[in-house]
Amino acid sequence: MDYDYKILWSDKALSDLDGTLEYLEREWTIREVQNFKSTLFQRIDLIGKYPKLFRPSTAKPNLRRSVLSKQTSIYYQVDKDNSQITIIRLFDNRMDIQKL
Description:
The protein is of the alpha+beta class. The chain has helices at residues 11-27, 30-49, and strands at residues 6-9, 64-67, 72-79, 84-92. The N and C termini lie far apart (29 Å).
């Protein structure tokens, strides 16, 4: 999909993704892992096209939050001047928000 905004991933978000995928591959089926990846990248596509679709985070107002699942939220930052979005974290919703 063509984005209106360039998508960048922070090192922490990439680490979060690796950890999540490792867990899913260990604990769940290949199909469930593929479903997670599909859902995640569809959401990233949506964020890239409509960056203001999701609300600013109440904990970190400079970030926006998209709830991907009961367990995971995507936190991202929009840089309108450079037409880019940085995925800051794939955050486990059960964690303390102060660790964001």
